Amino acid sequence: MSLRLSTVILPHRRWHEGGGAAWTRAEQLGFHAAYTYDHLSWRSFRDGPWFGAVPTLTAAATATERMRLGTLVTSPNFRHPVTLAKELISLDDISGGRITLGIGAGGTGFDATVLGQQPWTPRERADRLAEFVPLLDRLLTEDTVTYQGEFYSAHEARGIPGCVQRPRLPFAVAATGPRGLRLAARYGQAWVTTGDPKLFETGTPEQSVQALRGQGEKLAEACASIGRDVSGLDKILLTGFTPDRGRPLESLDAFVDFAGRHQELGFTEIVIHWPIPDSDFAADEKVFERIAMEAPGQLA
Predict the structure, then answer these.
(1) Is 106 in contact with 74 (CB distance < 8 Å)?
(2) Suppose 283 and one of 47, 53, 249, 250 were both cysteines; which one would form an S-S bond, judging by CB atoms 3.0 to 4.6 Å apart?
(3) pLDDT digits (tens, 9 = 90+) for 231-264
(4) Are 238 and 193 in contact (CB under 8 A)?
(5) What local confidence, expressed as pLDDT, does residue 110 receive?
(6) pTM score of the predicted model
(7) 91-107, pLDDT tens digit by residue?
(8) Residue 1 in this model has a pLDDT that exceeds 80
(9) What is the DSSP letter of 237?
(10) Where are the beta strands (DSSP E) in the chain?
(11) What is the DSSP string of 72-106?
(12) HSE of 95 in the Cβ direction (CA atoms, 13 Å)?
């Protein structure tokens, strides 16, 4: 299978001051998909401009025609399944069926406390995701849903007319632990990983590849446990968080080498960050565009 190349465009610029141009340029460059982070702010960008994911994707849907669009990733930190489902059905309609929902348990930081709650432990985040994903699946596939859970409720929630994509838009489930991988196996059309965060500071690229291989094996086991063939699940690597950091974007050859090693692990889609000067995602824009246009052909 040919490796698909996608990008993630952070919502840190006003739409009419370069924010919108990045999405149309991404489609011109031939990216399979363009995603954005679904946060209320993020790390070093917290005290600067930052726009909402759903309105940004709505604008991107009207500015593009072919490229898939989505979140990497949405989490329960500040989302509720009922309101999220309505927004996703609307987005899928506006885009003509081009939306993918990247979804995960979320993490610590501003999003985890902005609504006034105490930060959830990893177990609490996993508990919520385990309830969030099945309920969202129902809300996107059934006309009316009533549900009472430990964390979420829905009373006669309407999902009419449903998604353009049937039976619903695809879920790309971000997971590395056993509970998340089981959710990916049962509900996901794709699995997302950023690698092993413990290796980011002091690990090596070789150790990262080994860790990713192990994650893939655990995903296969989770699929086998429910009788699903893991080959039917797309495998997405969001780059920038492995020990390689920004080195794959230093040249076309460097990227092809990096992507080829991960293609051998079974990844079907590699996602690279749109360059942002003076940030963790700084990169030469000319090299970035050359990678977008030429790398997929070399990895076919």
Answers:
(1) no
(2) 249
(3) 999 999 999 999 999 999 999 999 999 999 999 9
(4) yes
(5) 85
(6) 0.97
(7) 999 999 999 999 999 99
(8) no
(9) E
(10) 4-8, 33-36, 68-74, 99-103, 144-148, 153-158, 171-174, 190-193, 234-238, 269-273
(11) EEE-TTS--HHHHHHHHHHHHHHTTS-EEEEE---
(12) 30
* 239's tokens: 């780059």
Task: Check residue 125 and report its DSSP letter.
Answer: H
Contact 64, 96 (CB under 8 A): no
Residues whose CB falls within 8 Å of the CB of residue 18, separated by 6 or more in sequence, listed in order: none
CA separation for the pair 185, 224 (Å, rounded): 9
Nearest to 48 by CA among 23, 14, 91, 83: 14
Among the listed residues 237, 245, 169, 215, the one whose alpha carbon sits nearest the alpha carbon of residue 5: 237
Say how far residue 50 (Cα) sits from the centre of its chain.
18
Q: Which of 222, 93, 223 is nearest to 160 (CA)?
A: 93
Greatest CA separation for the chain: 54
Q: How far apart are CA 296 and CA 3, in angstroms?
A: 7
- Neighbouring CB atoms inside 10 A of 266's CB total 18
The strand pairing partners of 99, in sequence order, are 69
Average pLDDT (291-299) is 96
Cα separation, 194 vs 271, in Å, equals 10
Q: What is the pLDDT of residues 266-275, one digit of tens each?
A: 999 999 999 9
Phi and psi angles of residue 170, each rounded to the nearest 5 degrees, phi first: -70, 145
Q: Which residues pair with 67 in a beta bridge?
A: none
Q: How far apart are CA 295 and CA 150, in angstroms?
A: 47
- Average pLDDT, integer, range 201-220: 97
Region 2-8: mean pLDDT is 95
Average pLDDT taken over every residue of the chain: 97
